[in-house]
Design goal:
By secondary structure, the chain is mainly alpha-helical. It folds into 2 domains: about 180 residues, no CATH class; about 190 residues, no CATH class. Helices cover about 75% and strands about 0% of the residues. This is ABC transporter permease. Keywords: Membrane, Transmembrane, Transmembrane helix.
Length: about 475
């Protein structure tokens, strides 16, 4: 089959999909807007666009901020360059990077080569991203006083890394969770080492060389050991998940989970041992599978917020580290309560202490990604005192987790009053983390908090036994 016929078949699918989506959006617009509203919206949009050029003095008032951003973009170029591949390693947990849906897969079962279809998909992705980056860069150059050369260099770097990481992301999507997670952590540690030792340029060249070599090594094995069922399942959801339509119709698009992290684990193939802890662990896995999107959003959001805010302002970073403990433990408690209001657990008898005990393990695993940026920030800011600072974070996590789970436990029995004081004290103790910004010696109080936490755990074990 020649190139023209392959392209025509591919373009037919893409054009048909675009038409269907356009019909859906037209119906949504017809239901959401009328002619008068649309006219006024266009007038307001035109005024906002014109005001950018009319109110030039408004932008001039932020001249110093723009100069600071320009200075940071210049000074930290090599750090940003070495961090960029992290984005695609993180995306590989949920996105294969090449948009092969069930339609393209069915096309490959006809006399069309999958290699050509993947090539067309990748080329389309690269051209679209280049146009997006060009439009955004042009807007930044027109509106801000940042030097155009810097914007153009960053445009080229972002697009080049996008192009080079397409094949690695595709292959990473196929491997198990643990290797991907190890690679993600190693890249974070390597960038941390480059920042501490001031050799970001060398680290960038090493990372770039590895990325280029991986493209040559993986290109020949690009179509070996591919889980096409999982690839098409994820891409079908990415293509047809339209947030605007979902919000307008109040109907949430859900992914059909035929292939997922929990079902494909090796332990699922072993004989199941019918013990209380094994049964409760399996029920927790089922609950986490149904809420995996929220779990990833909360943990990923906390990691990203801590990293970004600490980069710009150390004090804000400390505040967010303290709040992250409160947010994460409150989220764990809400998952705990929700477990008893959904699924088979609503109609069967259960042991709440066993549920609480098995939940603790998963809560600790979920908090580890949040601890990674906190550890890096602590080592950079406090050197040897970072050990006591990390002990402080862990001890406050323990206290908050026990307090939130006690409240969740009592909420199931409709008794919350007696635990409100403990919750207030636990929340107030987060101020110690913020105080460490002025003096890291305050973190030494973590020893006392840890002892208190262990005493509470021993008391609870003796009480339940």
């Amino acid at each position: 089959m020649n190139n023209a016929s392959s392209w025509q078949a591919y373009w037919l699918i893409r054009r048909g999909r675009a038409r269907k989506k356009m019909k859906v959006y037209k119906k949504m617009m017809a239901l959401s807007f009328d002619l008068t509203t649309s006219l006024y919206s266009l007038i307001v949009g035109g005024y906002v666009f014109a005001s950018i050029f009319i109110f030039n003095d408004f932008l001039a008032a932020y001249q110093d901020q723009f100069l600071f951003i320009e200075e940071q973009l210049t000074e930290r170029f090599w750090l940003i360059f070495s961090i960029l591949p992290l984005r695609y390693v993180f995306q590989s947990f949920r996105n294969p990077g090449i948009l092969i849906t069930s339609s393209e897969y069915q096309l490959a079962m006809l006399p069309y080569e999958m290699k050509r279809i993947v090539l067309f998909t990748a080329l389309e992705k690269w051209v679209k991203l280049l146009l997006k980056y060009a439009i955004v860069s042009a807007a930044i150059i027109l509106i801000t006083p940042i030097k155009p050369e810097i914007i153009v260099v960053y445009l080229a770097v972002f697009w080049l890394i996008e192009l080079l990481m397409t094949i690695p992301q595709w292959k990473l999507f196929q491997v198990r969770f643990i290797p991907r997670f190890i690679l993600f952590v190693v890249l974070i540690l390597v960038n941390f080492l480059g920042t501490v030792t001031q050799v970001n340029m060398i680290i960038s060249f090493i990372v770039f060389t590895i990325v280029v070599l991986s493209n040559f090594l993986l290109f020949k094995r690009m179509f070996t050991n591919i889980n096409w069922g999982r690839v098409t399942e994820v891409n079908d959801f990415l293509v047809w998940n339209m947030p605007a339509v979902s919000k307008a119709t109040k109907v949430k698009f859900k992914r059909q989970r035929k292939h997922n992290l929990f079902l494909n684990r090796a332990s699922r193939k072993k004989p199941f041992v019918y013990t209380d802890s094994a049964i409760y662990r399996r029920l927790w896995l089922q609950h986490f599978r149904g809420n995996i999107e929220y779990i990833v959003q909360v943990i990923g959001g906390l990691v990203l917020a801590i990293t970004v805010l600490s980069f710009f302002n150390e004090f804000l970073g400390m505040i967010l580290i303290a709040l992250s403990i409160h947010i994460y433990t409150a989220f764990c408690a809400s998952l705990f309560v929700d477990r008893f209001h959904s699924g088979i657990v609503q109609v069967l008898p259960w042991n709440i202490e066993s549920y609480r005990r098995t939940m603790r393990r998963w809560a600790i695993i979920g908090f580890i990604p949040v601890l990674i940026p906190i550890t890096i920030i602590a080592v950079i800011l406090y050197s040897w005192w970072s050990i006591t600072f990390l002990l402080l974070v862990i001890s406050l996590y323990m206290i908050h987790y026990m307090s939130k789970m006690d409240n969740a436990f009592e909420s199931l029995n409709k008794r919350l009053v007696q635990f409100s004081i403990k919750g207030v004290i636990a929340f107030g103790s987060l101020g110690i983390i913020i105080a460490c910004h002025t003096n890291p010696h305050y973190s030494a109080v973590s020893i006392v908090i840890l002892l208190y936490g262990f005493i509470q755990l021993k008391f609870r074990k003796s009480k339940t036994s």
